[in-house]
Give the backbone structure.
Amino acid sequence: MSNKKIHDFHDFCVRFREKIANFVVMKVIYNRFIPFGSFHGLNLFGTIFVQRRWGKMDPHELNHETIHTLQQWEMTYVGFYLWYCVEYLVRLVQYRFKTEKAYYNISFEREAYANERNQHYVSQRRPMAWVNYLRKSS
Ligand SMILES: [Zn+2]
């Protein structure tokens, strides 16, 4: 391929990613019971459940959940939840049953926490970017 074609293709990909990011419409449902326990938010098929006692979501939290929604799309939802649970179990063993440490090290969470403060991340993110977080970078 010529340089121009590669450049055009790159441009196309950048624009495509921005378009995809615009499709993410986050619906947040504030309620009294879901999610249970100390979890702040639960993203179910792109709808976020937040207990009212935690207050309104801030832009970083919304960005975090938007990243999860993109992960869910590319893993066709079922794949996301399956992988999430299996990786959590693997991390539990890896981190000697420290539940919080296991949760923060699920690659979906690593990607979301690492980039939630970057408001441009969602529109620049490469598909399946979470795969890069399977191994710890540090
Ligand atoms: Zn998360």
User: Anything to note?
Assistant: The pocket of zinc ion is lined by residues 64, 68, 109, 112 (CB under 6 Å). The longest helix spans residues 3-23. The chain has one domain: 3-133. Residues 3-133 form one domain.
